[in-house]
Amino acid sequence: MTGLGIIDAHQHCWQLTRPECSWPTPDLRAIYRDFGPQDFWREAAPRGVVGSVLVQSQPNEADTDYLLTLAERWPSILGVVGWTDLTREAAPGRIRALAQNPWLKGLRPMLQALPEDDWILHRANQDALSAMAVQGLVFDALVCPRHLPVLLELARRHPDLTIVIDHGAKPDIARGGLGGWQQGLKALASCPRVYCKLSGLATELAPGQPWEELLPYLDSVLEIFGPERVLWGSDWPVLNLAGDYSRWLTLAWHRVNAVTPGQEAAVFRGNARAVYGLAI
C-alpha cells in the first residue's frame, strides 16, 4: 500500500476564525477546530499518500481563494475543487477567470444542502455549466440518493461535463438503504463521463453500527462503476466523526483488492490523476 504513491481525492482544510467559515458548528466536537495542510500530512504521509485534492467546505468565494492559496504553498496539494455562485449571470465569466489558476480543477455547489432537489437544473446558470465543460473543470456532486435522477438529467444535458459523485451519493447506511440507491447509481454509470468517489461512507453509519455494514456499499460502488471510474478519498477531517484515516484507508484498500483485484493503482492513484488532470 505504502509503495503505490496514493492520491487522496477528497480532503478538507478550514480555519474557524475566517469570516466565511460557518461550518463545522460547535456541536461537532471532533472536528470543531482548525485543520490545515500540516495536520493532514501528519495523518496521510505515513500511510503512503503523496498528494491530495483539496475540496471546499464553505459555499463562499473567499473559501475558494483560501484553498488556492494553500495549494500554491503546499506542493503536495495537487488540485482544488472550489465554489462559485452558479446562479449569477456573470458566472460563466467568473468560471473562465478561475480556470486560469492552474490549481483549480473543479467546482462544487453543495447540492445536498439546497432546498430544491432540482436546483442545478432550474436555478443554476446553464451557460456556467457549459463553461465548466469547455474549461475542463470537474463538477463535484455533493448529493444524496434523492438527487440521483436530477444528476442523471444534468449528465444528459451536459454530456461533455465530467461529473464526480462525492461520497457515493451518501447512501442511507444507517437504515440499510441499498436498493433504490443502487438503481440510481446504475443509471448514472451509463453516462461515460460520470465517476464516483469511494469516500465519506463511514460517516453515514449510525452510532455503534459495525463497520462491516459498509461493505455492501463499497462493493456496489466498485461493481457499478468499475475500477476505472472510482476514486478513493478520505473526506478527512470529517472522517474523524466516525473513525480514523488508517482504518478507512485499510478497509477500502482490502475491499478494492477483494472485489477488483489488481486495480488498486487505478482507484487509489490513477483515476484521480486522470479525472482532475493532476501533475504527478
What does it look like?
With 280 residues, the chain is α/β, with parallel strands linked by helices. Helices cover 37% and strands 14% of the residues. The chain has helices at 37-44, 61-73, 91-98, 119-122, 126-135, 148-157, 179-189, 215-225, 245-259, 264-276; strands at 6-11, 49-55, 77-82, 104-107, 138-141, 163-165, 194-198, 230-232. An eight-stranded parallel β-sheet has the order 1-2-3-4-5-6-7-8. Helix 3 packs parallel to helix 5 (126-135) and helix 6 runs parallel beside helix 7. The radius of gyration is 17 Å and the shape is globular. The mean pLDDT is 97.
Furnish the topology, listing elements before pairings:
Elements: E1 6-11, H1 37-44, E2 49-55, H2 61-73, E3 77-82, H3 91-98, E4 104-107, H4 119-122, H5 126-135, E5 138-141, H6 148-157, E6 163-165, H7 179-189, E7 194-198, H8 215-225, E8 230-232, H9 245-259, H10 264-276
Parallel strand pairs: 1-2, 2-3, 3-4, 4-5, 5-6, 6-7, 7-8
